[in-house]
Amino acid sequence: MIRHLRNMKRAFKTGILLPNTTPAASAPNGSREIPVQGNLFKRLRHEKDWFRVSRHQLTLKDISQPLSILHITDVHLRKSDQWLQNLISAMAGMTPDIVALTGDIVAPGWTEEAFSQFMNALPDARIGKFAALGNWDIWASNDPSQWPGKYADHGVKLLINEWQMIDNWCIAGVDDLLAGKPQPSQLLGTLPNAPTLVLNHCPALFRQLAKEPVKLVLSGHAHGGQVRLPIIGPLWTPKGSGKTIAGWSIRNESHLFVSRGVGWSVAPLRLLCPPELAWIDINPE
């Protein structure tokens, strides 16, 4: 407990206390999720273990066929334990076209066993599995240059300021805003004229990414606030979060979706902000 209190003290110095954020908005064509029940005390103790699958509908111009995406972010893996087993069970049976990982898959003290166990349990994807790095992936690794190989060993393409054309979609990834060297302008300048999905950890980069041909940006990082107080809202958010820390936003006809993520940071707590696995259905207009 003392260690967690120290981590919280450090965190408050590196983020924003009682941030001014926008309310979480639904997808343009609707979002749904089974609500969490329980009093505040029960939720504070157990909510970090209550995984929820949110489902979102988005209709876009200039696409020829439907696309389904399983978006997973901010897992903050540490060790192989019951929490990880429960997460793996929550992913079981899913068959998306794309699995999109948007960073902070690991946390300080992570083990190779936990990483391999999680990656091996990712659902099969018809088109492929793609990832972008988060700040903790870089900070908690002795050698961040090993990540492309580690992801490739599990059939996942890590995209760092690069893109790949596949199945009439351009899938792009941006390096992390806080710990990496993102190059959004250079990346956008090289994109083909095709509907583009961008994987990006920190939502604060959305303003620079919201340009044609980018149709959708997926982000995480803020954990939806992780601990949200009644009436007041999120207690704290890390730098790089911006105002949209959960849900949907639109700018210049580019859509942003920010997931609450599935793990926890600083302390093993969540309140009024359950872990989220996001399923996004994109349909032609």
Question: Which band does the percent of strand residues land in?
Answer: 25-35%
Using only C-alpha atoms, the radius of gyration works out to 18 Å
The total of beta strands comes to 17
Q: What is the arithmetic mean of pLDDT?
A: 94
Strand order of the largest sheet: 2-3-17-4-5-6-7
Overall form: globular
The CATH class is Alpha Beta
The CATH topology label is Purple Acid Phosphatase, chain A, domain 2
Return the domain count: 1
Helix content range? 10-25%
Helical element count? 8
Order of SSEs, N→C? HEEHEEHEHEHHEEEHEHEEEEEEE
CATH architectural name:
4-Layer Sandwich
Q: N- to C-terminal separation?
A: 52 Å
What profile does the largest beta sheet have?
7 strands, mixed
Low-pLDDT stretches: 1-5
Helix/strand-derived class? alpha/beta
Brief overview:
The protein has helices spanning 2-13, 40-46, 82-91, 112-120, 135-139, 147-152, 184-190, 206-209, and strands at residues 15-17, 31-32, 52-60, 67-72, 98-102, 128-132, 156-158, 162-166, 169-173, 196-199, 214-219, 228-229, 233-234, 236-238, 247-251, 254-258, 276-284. With 285 residues, the protein is an alpha/beta fold. The chain has one domain (19-284): Purple Acid Phosphatase, chain A, domain 2 (4-Layer Sandwich).
